[in-house]
Amino acid sequence: MRATKVSLATLLFVVLCNLPPLHFFMFLISGDAIVPGTSDYLYVTPDLEYVYGGSLANLSSNSCNQDYVRLNGNNTLHRLQKIEPWRFWRWGDYLLNEKWRQPYLEISPNELNKAIRRFAARYGASDGTLRCKLDEERDRQW
Questions:
Q1: 91-115 residue pLDDT tens
Q2: Residue 130 class from Cβ within 10 Å (0-12 exposed, 13-18 middle, 19+ buried)?
Q3: Which pLDDT tens digit goes with each residue over 32-64?
Q4: More confident site: 137 or 43
Q5: Is 79 within 8 Å of 97 (Cβ atoms)?
Q6: Count of CB atoms within 10 A of residue 26's CB?
Q7: What is the DSSP string of 84-130?
Q8: How many whole angstroms separate alpha carbon 133 and alpha carbon 70?
Q9: How far apart are the C-alpha atoms of 134 and 123, rounded to whole Å?
């Protein structure tokens, strides 16, 4: 009976830690970033030739992605962040956010910088961001 109560209390605590406002406080206590950083929504292809920064929902309208798929046929994007199961306050995000359904690719910061430079040389916007210059040209026409 005691073990059941402890198990239920633990389960309730984990569930509550994944809901506001306790979710917010768990991020504060743990030192996690409350506002996601740029690299939190950065994806790469396995060949490290294509880098995408942004929401996966907007991927289909991205001209650079369409160009990359046309040339290479494969557009599987890999997330760069590991799932850390001991951070139980993130479990809700792990289950519900599409980002966490993407395959994981472990690369070094040096490899990532090289991939970003290659991408920028091929697709990069004139302002030096990861924004696609093909999209930039399309926007100018409007």
A1: 999 999 888 999 999 999 899 889 8
A2: middle
A3: 765 555 567 889 999 988 888 888 888 877 788
A4: 43
A5: no
A6: 17
A7: -TT-GGGHHHHHH-GGGGSPB----HHHHHHHHHHHHHHHB-TTSSS
A8: 17
A9: 7
Partners of 132 in the β-ladder:
124
- Cα-based distances in Å from 65 to 22, 35, 132, 140: 38, 26, 9, 19
pLDDT band per the 50, 70, 90 thresholds, residue 78? very high
Domain boundaries along the sequence of the chain: 1-32, 36-141
Residues 23 and 17: beta-carbon distance below 8 Å: yes
The mean pLDDT of 66-80, rounded to a whole number, is 85
Contacts of 92 (CB under 8 A, 6+ apart): 18, 19, 23
| Cβ burial, residue 76 (10 Å; 0-12/13-18/19+) | exposed
